Amino acid sequence: MPNQSQWTYTVAQRPGSYLTVLKVQTVPEHVQRRLYPSLRTRQLRYPPTPRIPYLNLPENQSHFFFHIPDANPTAANLFPIDLSHPGPLSRMQKSRLTDHIPKFTPISIRNIRNKVLCQIETGACPMHTVDFVEFLQHLVHAPLETYDSLSQPVRESVRRYFLQRCAGNFGRCPGLNPSGVDLLLGNTVLWTLDTDSQGFWVATVDLPRTSFRGHF
User: Fold this and answer.
1) d(CA 44, CA 70)
2) Domain for residue 166, yes or no?
3) Largest alpha-carbon pair distance within the chain?
4) pLDDT value, residue 48
5) What pLDDT is stored for residue 59 in this prediction?
6) Which end of the chain has the lower number of beta carbons within 10 A, N or C?
7) Res 13: pLDDT
8) Do the Cβ atoms of 153 and 25 come closer than 8 Å?
9) Residue 30 and residue 89: Cα distance in Å, rounded?
10) What SS3 state is found at 72?
11) Dihedrals φ, ψ of 203, to 5°?
12) Is 92 inside a domain boundary?
């Protein structure tokens, strides 16, 4: 029985093509609680009240001021997202990645040259975009246990990239088996996650660049 606290998926192949389709089977419990608030454990909460922080007054009070952060960050502050970073998404990212993705919805994963790397299909549980980004993070880091289920051309492509990563790491392989980063051919930087002009969901990914710093 699958572990309900982790992401699980199966691999299929679109008939008549070599396109790899990942079908989400289970989602972590925290995602279910986020989608269905009734599943949350009831907790007593104090009503929100204004609180004045206790601050030491500076010696020179003429330079005393408060810094108020921007409460409405723009979309430019959201992307790119470095999927290879193991840490959780920031509060700002979680607050903005709120678009709804219906259940059994295919999302095309493409690189910046519009090449389809794979397709991910949400399962019986709908998602928000923040949930889908978390799944991509899981995919990048987790071993590709369904490697043998890939089509022969895709399996060879994944294997070549995996060996290339081993060679770039002084011959030390990062794991015993390829992972999702090999399926994505190293494209671990998410630039877009939205519907196209025809209403189909598309996620655009790219190789890491040194000219920008991803959001962590």
Assistant:
1) 30
2) yes
3) 75
4) 53
5) 54
6) N
7) 85
8) no
9) 14
10) coil
11) -115, 125
12) yes
Question: Residue 92 is encoded by which pair of tokens?
Answer: 């700002």
Structure-block tokens of residue 15: 């008939």
Q: Is residue 42 part of a domain?
A: no
The pLDDT of residue 47 is 53
**pLDDT reported for residue 70:** 43
Structure tokens at 103: 């259940």
- Which residues in the chain come in under a pLDDT of 50? 1-2, 39-44, 46, 49, 51-55, 57-58, 61-74, 216
DSSP per-residue string spanning 159-180 = HHHHHHHHHHTTT--SSSS-BH
Instruction: Report helix, strand or coil for 201.
Output: strand
Question: What per-residue confidence (pLDDT) applies to 17?
Answer: 81
Residue 77 is part of which domain span? 8-34+73-206
| DSSP H or E segment with residue 57 | none
Q: What is the rounded (10 degree) CA torsion for 72, 75, 77, 81?
A: 140
Angle at 90 between CA 67 and CA 64, to 5 degrees: 10
Q: Quote the tokens at residue 131.
A: 């949930």
Token pair for residue 88?
């959780």
pTM across the whole model = 0.76
